[in-house]
């Protein structure tokens, strides 16, 4: 396990961010769940030795067809397994041995006429597109916003610091396709305006604007988690959005998948993952079919021995994994491997009141104050500080120069606030 009281890692988007995205096609096996979380009863639709194609449904779920997972490769079912996935919990999976298949040429099919909104939605549903921002099927989000209304739709490419660059890689290589996928999604939800939001280095930003123009790329002026994919209420030209507007966001990979589903007839069967960390000899962004094991991806990037620490997601919000024998699934965008040398616990010191935790908190909380009140058992005061609004992004712990694990304390404070109300007698410390 990673040390509990914070680690300090260097800014390391490079060299992965500048490398071309590698396409991992030569894989031997994928492990795919028969379904993601569903209450409905799942019936496997394939059995041992069955041959499957890309897009073959692996299960039937009558009450929740959106939860069905399709094969991401051509191959033969060689078994079933139950796995404990650090991000998705217990999954009942099909093991598929891959057969070599020629990659389909990426030739856009010219549409003779614009699809109707219902046709685009049906395509998004049948292509099984999952939004990488939250792991939710895109169709669920689009249908909900269609009902509730959406004034502005943003493709959110603002990435968690300091390692992930998969959104940047997708934008750098496919800006027109991402924008077109976003336009289709905006059409579905009735959003009159849309743009791609990202915080990109100058050279990549210029290259992208050269291809799609300036109007659809919004460069955020801060980084995750404080960055907003839309700027509200500031009179600075084209990106001004009125307060109270219904603004929604989807991931850039989901936009690309929607483009590919509509124009190329492809299902959403792969994702781009940043592979980085000091144990990785060749850090890069890799496009992999869903179900590819972490082991195969790390081997492709030059890792031959298990790293000391493996983190899925990212080091601020990521989860440690104890084994490499787990699949990459929808919603995973970063894979970090570290040596023990890189994971140096920070010595914890008393708060010096620098205010950095307040600056980075996107929920506008006072992390240092919540920490202080909790430690001093001022539970009544704690309530007024609204710790329940914390989503555990970990930015405050990451930024604290004193190594205080504020996010962990706030998580505890959230729960205690509802069950205990103690005001110490004579406590006048406001
Ligand atoms: S972990 Fe919670 S308190 Fe800390 S920055 Fe994130 S939202 Fe704010
Ligand atoms: S960042 Fe750390 S040291 Fe600075 S105010 Fe917050 S808790 Fe205190």
Description:
The chain has helices spanning 117-126, 138-148, 166-173, 175-189, 202-212, 252-264, 294-300, 356-360, 367-375, 379-384, 395-399, 406-419; strands at 22-23, 29-33, 43-44, 51-52, 59-60, 75-85, 89-98, 130-131, 136-137, 152-156, 193-198, 217-219, 231-232, 240-241, 247-251, 270-276, 284-289, 309-312, 319-320, 334-338. It is an alpha/beta fold. Among the domains are: 117-264, NADH-ubiquinone oxidoreductase 51kDa subunit (Rossmann fold); 356-419, no CATH class. The strands form 6 sheets. Strands 1-17-16-20-18-19 form a 6-stranded mixed β-sheet, sandwiched between helices. Strands 2-7-6-4 form a 4-stranded antiparallel β-sheet, with no helix packed on it. Helix 1 packs antiparallel against helix 2, helix 1 crosses helix 4 (175-189) and helix 4 (175-189) packs across helix 6. The longest helix is centred in the middle third of the chain and has 15 residues, at 175-189. The chain starts with 21 loop residues before the first strand and ends in an 11-residue tail after the last helix. The structure holds iron/sulfur cluster (2 copies). One iron/sulfur cluster (SF4) is lined by residues 351-357, 367-368, 399-402, 404, 406.
